[in-house]
UniProtKB/TrEMBL annotation:
It comes from the Bacteria. This is Uncharacterized protein. Keywords: Membrane, Transmembrane, Transmembrane helix. It comes from Cytophaga hutchinsonii (strain ATCC 33406 / DSM 1761 / CIP 103989 / NBRC 15051 / NCIMB 9469 / D465). The keyword rRNA processing does not apply. The chain crosses the membrane at residues 20-37, 74-95, 101-121, 133-152, 185-207, 214-233, 239-258, 267-285, 407-431.
Length: 445
């Protein structure tokens, strides 16, 4: 009788984990579909479609709550306490500034509603789920590369380059009539995050044991070409900067494991392949390289490195007479501005640390910044331990992908940044757990 009950409980747990991972996958797919619907299929419903992913999160949270399956880690409990504190802060601000209730709720959503997703993924994502996620990313990178190439070739007012919404208008221009392709996303930052993530998952495939690889050599090369094409037409200094950080993270991780013979072989293969690839890249994408060079020159001397790292140092944007309670959580986002004024504009500091302080006040703003730093340290330490234990550089590679956005990226103001930030924090934490619980890989490359 007891054995039968244990089997039933085991099957119930398996069903729960499977359903959670299916929901995570649906959330990820909707991240791509959102922009397609808002730009080309249902632009008149752009505003409600913006929230298309939120019901999936509600479904996951209800499942976890109803079955007492929320993670029990101390960091998750602290995160939930912080979410409650900031919810109280939101109500105080609503009373003080008589802002619309929906605007305050939207602001709190940008700070904390997606947060549990990362810890749920850390706790319940398994290696087969990770591989399914990676396979989807790599394969969808191929049609996205075709799309972005045609967006790059098309004029700014072409249908393929329209923005989200009924009166969408045109996207960002690199210079002249050359646009920065949005791909399927509703905002330019989507490709800034997608393109480097494609590189990460390609490296995941490379370092998996032969029996676990999800791409054959043929499809690996095709997807690698899709990554190169998406990068070339991006026109984005941030994308190039992120890819550089990733490659540096990969090299540092390999050097950390250099005592392993298979890692030395992989290091040499990657360096040689990168040099050859760079030569081919400069020939095939000469026009695109010329355009990004022009973009850098037009940026008034701002380097790619400065573009990537300047977001967290702009405290000059903070008014010294700022109210203790801040100006209103979420006030600096375009969504809140639209809910309060009818115009979707960024109305507060461009840097996210500056925005956190202005919106929440000095005390609560720095409290949230400290929270972001703690998450970064937790992820970084877990990645380091997992890399050393597994003798595989993948955990630290994904830390390199996520840490910039989590540390000072515009996670509380831009919907795409918000989604990618918490989703890939979950991916990184899940990878740390997966690789920390396995022995050294025997088949790599």
């Amino acid at each position: 009788m007891s054995i039968s009950a244990d089997i039933v409980d085991l099957n119930k747990d398996d069903r729960f984990v499977n359903n959670i991972n299916k929901a995570i996958m649906v959330f990820y797919v909707l991240l791509f579909l959102e922009g397609i619907l808002r730009k080309w299929i249902l632009p008149q419903l752009s505003s409600p479609i913006f929230f298309i992913k939120d019901p999936v999160l509600v479904y996951m949270y209800i499942m976890c709550w109803s079955q007492d399956k929320f993670p029990k880690s101390v960091l998750f409990q602290v995160s939930m306490m912080l979410a409650v504190i900031f919810l109280i802060l939101t109500f105080i601000q609503l009373v003080m500034y008589t802002s619309p209730f929906i605007a305050g709720l939207y602001g709190w959503r940008n700070y904390f509603f997606y947060m549990p997703l990362a810890f749920i993924m850390e706790h319940y994502m398994r290696k087969p789920d990770l591989i399914r996620f990676a396979r989807f990313t790599c394969y969808i990178g191929i049609p996205i590369a075709v799309l972005t190439y045609f967006q790059f070739l098309s004029p700014p007012d072409a249908f393929i380059n329209r923005n989200a919404g009924e009166d969408g208008g045109v996207g960002f221009a690199v210079f002249g009539d050359i646009v920065r392709p949005y791909g399927p996303f509703s905002f330019v930052s989507g490709m800034v995050f997608f393109t480097p993530s494609l590189f990460c998952f390609l490296m995941l495939n490379y370092f998996l044991p032969k029996e676990e690889k999800f791409l054959s050599m043929f499809w690996f090369i095709i997807c690698l070409g899709a990554f190169a094409s998406n990068l070339a037409v991006s026109g984005s200094r941030g994308t190039y900067g992120n890819v550089f950080v990733l490659f540096a993270s990969l090299l540092c991780s390999l050097l950390l494991l250099i005592r392993h013979k298979k890692i030395l072989k992989s290091l040499l293969i990657i360096i040689i392949s990168a040099c050859l690839g760079l030569l081919i890249y400069k020939v095939v994408f000469a026009r695109q390289i010329e355009i990004i060079s022009q973009r850098v020159e037009n940026a008034k001397g701002e380097s790619v490195g400065h573009r990537v790292t300047s977001g967290f140092v702009a405290f000059n944007e903070i008014d010294p007479d700022l109210n203790f309670w801040g100006e209103g959580i979420g006030k600096g986002s375009a969504g809140t501005a639209y809910l309060t004024t009818g115009k979707a504009v960024f109305s507060i500091a461009e840097s996210d640390w500056g925005r956190n302080v202005v919106e929440c006040g000095v005390f609560f703003g720095f409290l949230f910044i400290i929270y972001r730093i703690i998450l970064c340290l937790y992820m970084l330490f877990g990645g380091l331990v997992a890399t050393l234990n597994s003798a595989v550089p993948i955990p630290l590679l994904f830390v390199g992908y996520e840490i910039q956005n989590l540390f000072f990226g515009q996670m509380v103001s831009v919907g795409t940044n918000l989604s990618y930030g918490w989703l890939f924090l979950g991916i990184s934490l899940a990878i740390n757990k997966i690789y920390n619980n396995q022995t050294e890989e025997t088949n790599v490359g």
